[in-house]
Predict the structure.
Amino acid sequence: ETWRFALEEVEGSVQDAYAQEFKKRIEERSDGDITIEIYPYGSLGTSSQLTELVQQDAIQLAFASPGHLASVIPETGVFTLHFLFSDDNEVNEQVLANTEARSMLQEAYHEQNLQLLGIIPEGWMVWTGNRSIETPQDMEGFKIRTMTSPILVESYRAYGANPSPMPYAEVYSGLQLGQIDGQVNPIFAIEEMSFYEVQDYMIQAKQAQFITTLVAAQDFYENLPEEQQTMIDEVTNEMRGYIFDKQDEFNEQRLETIQENSDIELITLSEEQREAFREMSLSVRDTYIEQAGERGKKILETLDEELRAAEEEKGG
Ligand code: 6CS
């Protein structure tokens, strides 16, 4: 039996590292009954197209990042809100692994024929630009490429920027041709997609994590023998630590690669500078609630409470 697994990222990415390890563990455990075929980004289509293929069970497994997926499941827009998650990414990982919001999210995924298998942080979203962005004033009219979800677009409108949603594959040429002024992605992606080659500044504001979700076709998952469902659940659970360390390692190493290969300027915003953005970002939570409704509101409240409680526990 063959399971197809599609990625929204190229070979060598965090999603690829996940898929390779998942393949190894599943194939081992199933004693060769299951073969996993991995399709890196570029072979099948845009992120949104991959989600459609999973909904049709043409592909059994894929990553579906809320930055795109919230166009279809608005509740997932919660993962793209700015200054909601902790500055401490270990706290985020713990909360995402155990959140009470999981069943509400699962319900929303099921309404779209999808099975939510995991929620995975891939690193801080870093701005790159042809100018530096240190204050919300610097965002004024800044043409920033964002992923395609309307909630994410609002996050940049709130700062006064001019967000321009487009698929991942079009970002490099958009930057090169000057159709956009900047973009936002984790460091590993900025390196492997070569965005740093056509940008002058990288700005670390720690406004958001890149959070992805692992999904399966719901019919596929539900029709699996129980022991295979359990195997998937166990493997995805056991892989949390593996992928958390990997994304950390990738983001750290690739920053070095970027600095060795370019003279891009790296800017880290101070707490005061971040505060100015944080204040402007809060109104986007209302937009999120308008789009994601009552269930979306509950998911936001649940995560917010869990995050603040986990921070307090760790801090004290
Ligand atoms: O910016 C994007 O569209 C993509 N970025 C990453 C790091 N992963 C997948 C996503 O589609």
Q: What stands out?
A: The longest helix spans residues 226-261. The CA atoms of residues 81 and 208 lie 7 Å apart. The chain has a mean pLDDT of 97.
